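Attaching the record inline, Q. Sequence:
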Amino acid sequence: MAFARIEGEIPGQGYQVLVHEGFPFFITADVFRLRHLSVGQELTEAECNELKDAQARRNCRSQAMAYLARREHTALELTRKLTQKGYELHIIKPTLEQLASDNLLSEYRYALLAIEHRQKKSPEGRVLMAQRLGEKGVNREDAQRALDELYGEEAIVEYVQKAYSLAIRKVGEDKARYLLQKKGFSSYEIRLGLDGFEKSK
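Structure, as predicted:
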């Protein structure tokens, strides 16, 4: 006797797979077509498990795409969210690798947006920003690439001057430099930015 059998399509749910000694499950019409299945087809246990995984990968990709439609994510963030949705790591990992290959998942884009958002709101030095990206799970190569792009000398001057102006309003001129250090600006960045600040007065 076969391990499972594919039944007819149920509108809104897909094709039901009846498992002789287990729980039934559904596969969507696209999975049914892509795998060239037919109603009434009998499956071995291995074929049934592979079909279940194929449907899980399809659902996992769909869920990941829904998250990415809202905003950029890191692979770490998506892994956590998809795990909470009940997907297993052996399904999640290849799904995210394929999304990255298709350029739908990009930690470089995530890093650029994260840096730009932070610098508009409350500018920070490169070292602290690199630490933040690391905590979010951005891989080192993409983080460095984004930091190199957005921490050129001109940008550093702009970040430091903005942070310095905010610091003066917050703690006064005497403590402003100390606050810049707490914001992760290096001595070089502070010197570069404040030299430009003085010249612009």
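The CA atoms of residues 14 and 29 lie 6 Å apart. The mean pLDDT is 94.

More tomorrow.
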